Amino acid sequence: MFGPFTLGVAAGERIAILGPSGAGKSTLMKLMARELTPAQGHVFLQGRNLRDWRLPALSRLRAVLPQSHDVAFGLPVDLVIALGRVALAHDPALPHIVRQAAGLARADHLLARRFDTLSGGEKARVHLARVFAQLWDVEQGLVMVDEPLAALDPGLQFQLMDAMLHFAAERGHAVIAILHDVNQALRDFERLLLIEDGALVGDMASDIASLPKLEALYGVRFASAVGTDGEVITAAVRGASCASAAIKPATTALAA
Length: 256
Fold this sequence. Notes:
The chain has helices at 25-33, 55-59, 77-82, 94-104, 120-134, 154-171, 182-188, 211-218, and strands at residues 14-18, 44-45, 48-49, 62-65, 142-146, 174-178, 191-196, 199-205, 222-227, 232-236, 251-254.
């Protein structure tokens, strides 16, 4: 059984989808992206049923970055990025947008390479650049990403998440991201959707008050600290489950 889900996404919102592996997070995103068709109910984009959109028009409003970064052929990196613009019959700004998008994704040094020679982290950057290129000159679109930074080192994760959120904020795009990193969700997103066994079990603000729900979702205890800037930092406690009354979350104020 999957769903039912009833939820809305406003222009410019930043939403993280969280849940255990196999809970249905990617399925929910595929329904929102029109990669899957709902058995019941409807999905609307800008008040129009998603099934009524022509694909070229839909691709000008929503971009998807899936978990898998494979490309069937050894295409040049600049061509992979340019594929984000394939719905446009006439695109005189294409070379400029490809370069700008690659720079924003820290992938400009890869433009002369072939995609099949790249590492997993480099491929992730190229596909993020493709998403940027796709919605570069669009306003109030939708960016959907599935574990976008999993293959990247911590420093690059910060840089690219900041770049993605700044890119979206400048254009009024909503961002929906499937994440396994609870700290990333609490730090960079304003709303959390919690998925368990194919059902929506939580829709809440991203703040320290969400920790009990997150503990119930994952079946662990979270130790937590709050910085002077209000940023919440958490860590799952080894060997502690929600049924263990002996272990309580510790909340500490951290200096910035």
